[in-house]
Amino acid sequence: MFPRVQGPIRADIIVAASNSSPRSKAHADIVCEGYHDEVALLQSLTQAGLYTTDMDASPSNKREVRCYGRHSVVWLPGDYSLDATLTIPDMADSVIGAEGAYFHFQPKHGDAVVVTGMMRSRYLFGTIETTSDGVALKVEPSGAEDWKSGRSNPAMGIQMSKISFLGLIGKDQNGKGLSVDLACTNAFEGTDISGFETGVYVESAGQGKFDTNWFWFSYIRRCITCIQECGGRVDDNVWRVNVDACLPGSIGLRTAAIYGKWYVIMGANPELPGNRAVVLDPGARYNIIEVHPPLADFPWEDNSGNDTNIILSLRDHGTR
Asked: Quick one: CA torsion of 258, 264, 267, 269, rounded to 10 degrees?
């Protein structure tokens, strides 16, 4: 279905974009055609073998799952047209290397890239650009709603893995940049998140679990809400972020979670109406939030309903 050019093997499968350099195409197993490239990219993943691996979000629900695994792909630098959602299937012990790739999501509705389940894996994306009202990069296990409602566990969770990206680029404050649900013991890292209604969104876990994840983002900007962390079995996440809440009515970060640790470089414009650096939502407790410059320099709100949250670098206590 796709033209194949033999070359030296640096991964199990190497994919080139339609506008990749001739040298890159010469090394590729698959060369995309510049439309519906999500089909070729998915094909590079599903050529992996199927293996059985253990999942144990908690000792009480340890189970075996069958998924693709022990696989590596390289998506070479270039422009990839996503004319439908690119769904990354359940995978374990696998690597995606796509740091120089630029993904263009064409539809006005829906999610650009969806990760459904991963275990001990590392995905290194380039830049995902979208004008959709959906999510640029959505990380959510299949069957998430059943797990959150207590009906069943998902087929596979998101555990002990790393997802990184160069950029998530939206337009006109529409949709979400990164949305994560039911993930435990992972690392999320990115350099630029821009132009969304919500830059980073952590879903409420319901009766499931979302905890002990690390987040590192060098700049979240031009979003109505830079980061929103919901409550409901969401706890013990560590954040190191630079946020810029400089739009009218924008918020730097808001959280309803517990036991979080935040290190924040804050930008917020106190002259803009409704602009707030930090919002502690009802239920937020035992969070430690370190803000630079001091949070007293910005408008902020504490609606948590308790006094267990600790704000470091705060010169004056209270809401401005």
From this structure: 30
Strands 49-55, 63-75: pairing kind: antiparallel
Contacts of 86 (CB under 8 A, 6+ apart): 38, 41, 42, 103, 112, 113, 114
Q: Are 280 and 248 in contact (CB under 8 A)?
A: no
Task: Give this prediction's pTM.
Answer: 0.93
Best CA proximity match to 57, nearest among 181, 179, 177, 170 = 181
Q: Which residues touch 317 (CB under 8 Å, ≥6 apart)?
A: none
Q: Give per-residue pLDDT as tens, 3-46.
A: 444 445 469 999 999 999 999 999 999 999 999 999 999 999 99
Cβ contact 124:97 at 8 Å = yes
CB 55 within 8 A of CB 121: no
- Chain segment 81-118, per-residue pLDDT in tens: 999 999 999 999 999 999 999 999 999 999 999 999 99
Element of type H or E holding 193: strand 187-194
Q: Give the residue extent of every domain in the chain.
A: 52-312
